[in-house]
């Protein structure tokens, strides 16, 4: 059980990274981006390309760090992929969503367009990498530490949790302390008033997509490190992402962080009672229950 | 000297014209009050001046510049600030952050201006770390005005600053408005509280059904029989 909770925290930290971006974008643009999960996949596969392709080709060492399953290649690929996916997300906004905003399209049009974008991103991955599961280091044995109570923990997983905490703290400081971060919160709170105050909301929107995309990439890569890569990985994350976002009150990024951990733990713990294939159903059930009994989520409804 | 002038403004939200050939003029340092029944188009006029609505006809001139059809973010840089009638604060931000957002486009050090705003509204200084959403109506109005003043505007547009406030709080807000005006800020104020609005106004306009009905000095309108009967409660 302790082991399942720990695995749940690992999974939850990955879900949180995706949910934050979903929530950020919703907070400012009031639209549910169904392509967000696939941005996670794009991040994972960008890193795969760098690790097994480009960085190998330019001769970066293949050695791993101590007990971890990755080395310098991944350490370089990680931030580069975050930047790349930030770029993809911003590009998607510029060529697609911004046009819809300009036309004042309704929520259904936005939902359909983001589904289309999700599909295109996934097809690109399928074309280049095929439909099989892949690993950053195929055949790598991943040793685990045995802790008391028979709990097995892999060093990679500890690394993942620490890294996610660092990313979240950085985001928190950005939002609370910097001028751009505060303007992002202000725009999310009241975009009309932000415009009235002279804030360039289009620039805020670009930042929002960039941060959301970068965090999605981080989540996708870490899932690839922890489990495996698959073209449908991000798409399969979509329900847990929405469940976490809604649980934490949509638009509230701190809620999304907490929601992500709750969903991750719930999903993993459920495998003690249910077949692992029911994991998505667990997230879906939590989402439906929240929507029925507390549609504003656990952090909603106190302000405004 | 005329600082702001809107002439023969015709504007609306869709096909329908809400404002029909409305004009208003603000001299440097003046308080101009606009009164009129609900739905007269008072808020619509402020939105049009501030560029939130593009007029179908007419002109908005700031000093000698034609700012007709400019976007709000450009107009704000030219020295007009606007406090909307509703949703005029960032509820999830602290008081201080609300004021900082008012100064978002400033690249210089605005700590001096921040101190001036706190001098004007000492109540805000005591609670600067508090979420604006937790404040009472009067305090919210102060935050909203404070935000708009951060850019040190030449002209301030206020839409119903006393709406929903108890009489003593409304009186306090009117005192603050006079104090702001004394520092040289010209203002257009839309008010339901017509008597108080005309008392402090150098000039007043009566708007009804999207048209200019009357305009005169504040004093003259206060003693005008017609205005008294219709808007000042007899
Ligand atoms: N966003 C909008 N879209 C469409 N019509 C609007 C909008 N806002 C106001 N109107 C209409 O425009 C007309 C004038 O409204 P406006 O808000 O300017 O009146 P007002 O004089 O400010 O009234 P109040 O004293 O109630 O604030 C009204 O008939 C109103 O229904
Ligand atoms: Mg109004």
Q: Main attributes?
A:
heterodimer, A: 304 residues, mainly alpha, ABC transporter involved in vitamin B12 uptake, BtuC, two-stranded antiparallel ribbon, 11 helices, 2% strand, B: 234 residues, alpha/beta, Rossmann fold, six-stranded mixed sheet, four-stranded antiparallel sheet, 10 helices, 10 strands, 37% helix, globular, binds adenosine-5'-triphosphate, binds magnesium ion
Provide structural commentary:
The complex is a heterodimer of chains A (304) and B (234). Chain A is mainly α. Chain A has one domain (2-293): ABC transporter involved in vitamin B12 uptake, BtuC, CATH 1.10.3470. Chain A contains eleven helices and two strands; from the N terminus they run ααααββααααααα. Chain A has helices at 2-29, 36-57, 72-102, 107-129, 155-177, 179-189, 191-196, 201-226, 233-247, 253-270, 279-293; strands at 145-147, 151-153. Chain A has a two-stranded antiparallel sheet with strand order 1-2. Chain B has 234 residues and is an alpha/beta fold. Chain B has one domain: Rossmann fold, CATH 3.40.50.300. In chain B, 37% of the residues lie in helices and 25% in strands. Chain B is built from ten helices and ten strands. Chain B has helices at residues 42-49, 72-78, 95-102, 111-120, 122-126, 137-149, 167-182, 194-200, 218-223, 225-231, and strands at 2-11, 19-27, 31-35, 57-62, 65-66, 80-83, 155-159, 186-190, 203-208, 211-217. Chain B has a six-stranded mixed sheet, with helices on both faces. In chain B, strands 2-1-4-5 form a four-stranded antiparallel sheet, covered by helices on one side. In chain B, a hairpin with a 7-residue loop joins strand 1 (2-11) and strand 2 (19-27). Chain B starts with a strand and ends with a helix. Chains A and B meet through helix 6 and helix 7 of A and helix 2 and helix 3 of B. The site of adenosine-5'-triphosphate (ATP) has 11 residues of chain B, from helix 1.
């Amino acid at each position: 059980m302790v082991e399942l909770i720990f695995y749940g925290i690992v999974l939850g930290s990955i879900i949180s990274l995706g949910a934050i971006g979903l929530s950020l974008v919703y907070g400012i643009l009031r639209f549910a981006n169904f392509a967000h999960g696939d941005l996670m996949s794009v991040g994972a596969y960008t890193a795969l390309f760098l690790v097994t392709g480009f960085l190998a080709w330019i001769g970066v060492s293949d050695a791993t760090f101590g007990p971890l399953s990755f080395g310098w290649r991944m350490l370089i690929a990680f931030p580069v992929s975050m930047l790349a996916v930030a770029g993809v997300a911003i590009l998607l906004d510029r060529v697609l969503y911004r046009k819809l905003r300009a036309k004042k399209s309704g929520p259904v049009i936005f939902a359909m367009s983001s589904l289309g974008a999700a599909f295109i991103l996934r097809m690109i991955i399928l074309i280049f990498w095929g439909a099989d599961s892949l690993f950053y280091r195929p055949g790598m044995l991943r040793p685990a530490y045995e802790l008391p109570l028979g709990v097995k923990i892999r060093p990679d997983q500890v690394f993942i949790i620490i890294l996610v905490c660092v990313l979240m703290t950085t985001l928190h400081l950005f939002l609370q302390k910097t001028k751009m971060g505060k303007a992002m919160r202000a725009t999310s709170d009241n975009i009309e008033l932000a415009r009235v105050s002279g804030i360039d909301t289009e620039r805020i929107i670009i930042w929002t997509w960039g941060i959301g995309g970068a965090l999605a990439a981080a989540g996708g890569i870490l899932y690839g490190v922890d489990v495996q890569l698959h073209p449908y990985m991000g798409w399969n994350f979509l329900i847990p992402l929405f469940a976490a976002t809604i649980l934490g009150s949509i638009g509230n990024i701190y809620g999304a962080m907490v929601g992500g951990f709750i969903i991750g733990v719930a999903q993993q713990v459920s495998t003690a009672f249910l077949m692992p294939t029911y994991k998505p159903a667990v997230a879906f059930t939590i989402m439906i229950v929240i929507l029925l009994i507390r549609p504003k989520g656990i952090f909603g409804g106190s302000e405004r | 000297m005329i600082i702001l002038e809107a002439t023969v403004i015709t504007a609306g939200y869709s096909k329908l014209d809400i404002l029909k050939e409305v004009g208003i003029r603000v001299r440097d340092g003046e308080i101009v009050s606009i009164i009129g029944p609900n739905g007269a188009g008072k808020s619509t006029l402020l939105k049009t001046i501030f560029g939130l609505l593009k007029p179908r006809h007419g002109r908005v001139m700031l000093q000698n510049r034609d700012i007709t059809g400019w976007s709000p973010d450009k107009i704000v840089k030219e020295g007009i600030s606007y406090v909307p009638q509703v949703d005029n604060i960032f509820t999830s931000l602290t008081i201080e952050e609300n004021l900082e957002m008012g100064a978002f486009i400033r690249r210089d050090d605005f700590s001096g201006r921040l101190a001036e705003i706190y001098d004007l509204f000492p109540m805000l200084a005591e609670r600067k770390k508090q979420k604006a959403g937790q404040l009472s109506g009067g305090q919210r109005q102060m935050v909203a005005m404070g935000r708009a003043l951060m850019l040190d505007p030449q002209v301030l547009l206020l839409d119903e600053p006393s709406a929903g406030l108890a009489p003593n709080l409304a009186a306090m807000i009117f005192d603050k408005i006079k104090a702001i005006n004394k520092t040289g800020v010209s203002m257009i104020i839309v008010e339901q509280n017509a008597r108080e609005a005309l008392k402090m106004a150098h000039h007043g306009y009566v708007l009804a059904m999207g048209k200019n009905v009357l305009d005169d000095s504040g004093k003259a309108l206060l003693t005008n029989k017609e205005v008294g009967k219709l808007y000042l409660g007899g």
